[in-house]
Amino acid sequence: MSTPLAFEENATPVIRGVARSVNSRGAAQAVGIGMRRVVRTYLRDLDQYRPTKHAADLPGSQSTHYYEQAAESITAPEVAGNRVTISITQVGFRQRLLGGQINPVNAKFLTIPGMAATYGTRAGEFQGLKFAYAQDVNGNLHPALVTEEAFQLRGTVRNRRGMGPKPAFQAGSVAYWLYRSVNQNPDPGVLPGEDYITAGAVEGLRSYLRLPRVKYGEAQ
């Protein structure tokens, strides 16, 4: 199970002052909607423009559009007192942000894709895999699941995904590398900065109150 990532606007002074003057739950909701809008936009841009590691490591692999899914997973604002919270519920997002050790659950090994055809899939979705030791990039023998002649997505999975013939490969190719655990580096770049989120909160409140935008340099 993945723990949702929640972050909140705890009424910064500019927001708190205006929201207090209108004393409205709707204003707090508007703050949360503004936060959600800028985070969602940021994640969608990330999905489209950020170079992905799999593209370099596994040429020919197709994006799973993980960050687009993360953008869609953002919850509606929850208001409690002077706090408004939104959460990103996409599986694994907190792990990407904070990093740390990843251990298998109900299994002996983690399966790390070793070819383009298996990127974004689980080993159980394929037939025609067997355990073996294969030579890694450092020339060391490492546990792996390698392909047999019958290697392909299982019928029901293939039909569900709308896929046709099985991918081209050579029998004995590494489909997945097996690890007891891996350590993932933290990646703070998967979220926009605090100032950006706060600006979204202010813009949400401004829109709710139908206040005009003030450009830099204009008299207030």
Folded structure, characterized:
There is one protein chain. This protein has 220 residues and is an alpha+beta fold. The chain has two domains: 130 residues; 84 residues, no CATH class. A hairpin with a 2-residue loop joins strand 2 and strand 3. Helix 2 runs antiparallel to helix 4 and helix 2 crosses helix 7. The C terminus is likely disordered.
Instruction: Indicate the mean pLDDT.
Output: 82
Gap from first CA to last CA: 50 Å
Oligomer: single chain
Number of strands: 9
Structural class: alpha+beta
Order of helices and strands: EHHHHEEHEEEEHEEH
Model regions low in confidence, pLDDT < 50 over at least 5 residues: 216-220
- Tally of distinct domains: 2
Please bin the fraction of helical residues.
25-40%
Q: Which strand order do you get reading across the main beta sheet?
A: 5-8-7-6
Helix-strand layout with pairing:
Elements (H helix, E strand, L loop, with lengths): L4 E5 L3 H10 L2 H25 L3 H5 L8 H7 L5 E3 L2 E6 L4 H6 L1 E3 L7 E4 L12 E10 L5 E13 L1 H7 L12 E6 L2 E3 L9 H16 L11
Antiparallel strand pairs: 1-3, 2-3, 4-9, 5-8, 6-7, 7-8
Helix pairs in contact: 2-4, 2-7
Descriptive keywords:
single chain, alpha+beta, 2 domains, four-stranded antiparallel sheet
